[in-house]
Amino acid sequence: MNTLLDEYYRYDLHNAGFIERKFTIDEEHTLIYGISQSGKSALLKNYLLSRKKSTYLYLDCRDMRLNIDELNATLAPFCRENKISILALDNYHDSIQLFEIDQILLTSETPLELPFQTLQLPLLDYEEFLAFESKFDSTALNHFFQLGGFPAMHRIPSEERALYIQNTLKRVLEPIEFSILTQASKMVTQKVSAFNLYERLKNERKISKDKLYLHLQSMYERGYIKSLSKYNHPNAVKKLYLCDIAIKHALIVQKHFGRLFENLVFLELDKHQIECYYDEGIDFYLPQRQQIIIASPFANEHALFKKVESLEAFIVSNRVLEVIVVTMNLESTLSHPVSRIEMIPFERWALSDD
Question: Which sign does the torsion angle of CA 78, 80, 83, 89 carry?
Fold first, then answer.
């Protein structure tokens, strides 16, 4: 095992083309977690490459040559003998024993119960996506709809992108989880319970409710599927969203631009950790901002007036200050007796400081 550790210690790390994210690693013990291909390894390597080479040891824990028992017996002595102060364990699993050292850096798909600083790394939001674009012009937003937030998508030929996502998901998900995600892709933005998914999946494969519920919960915890609660009704059926719209493109042929657009708006709110809920006729209610957000790519003023009228009771009782309508490219401010209505293009809304 010492031979393999010495091989890793001598490696020159490569992180070609790394583009800065909104997230950084400091000098604390840190766990970076997030779904597969979210950029965890690249962020980790970028930090290590800013340090003196002799001070760190990087290991990819997926390496089948790493015998765990031997690794646990030799890793700490190896670090001491080589005066290593930073231990970086990429794709870490908890069978590997940790020990006292100046800094430990871990990456994982799931959050772990460790006394470490945690950094959840999501896929790219729109602002980060623009940094990956070769140029910033009117085509950027359409490109975002096509590629989604996986950082690697810019490097993959268009005809291979769907297969790339399919293969990535098949590699990291159990077969039942892949089926759940495929079914979820057909139900984006709808109110979906675990029982709804079970009813659909039981016709495709043999599965117990308990097993489905267990895997579904795991997918929520890891962030592949996301949910939105109803305002003031925590036990009501939640709305379902995907962690990235590119997954829907890759798994099903069915298209519904309105639902994709709503999913995209949700992801921007989610990545910025903005508290939000849904209600009847309301895509997103932001109580701390006293805002309602409606995702309507091709809204028109007449329809909006009618919609706001239907929400009058909610707006008044919750003292909503404004209704934001996120559109593809329409922009306008409307005066309404019940509430101020502002139509904002997605690009301007996503890049605003609010």
Answer: positive
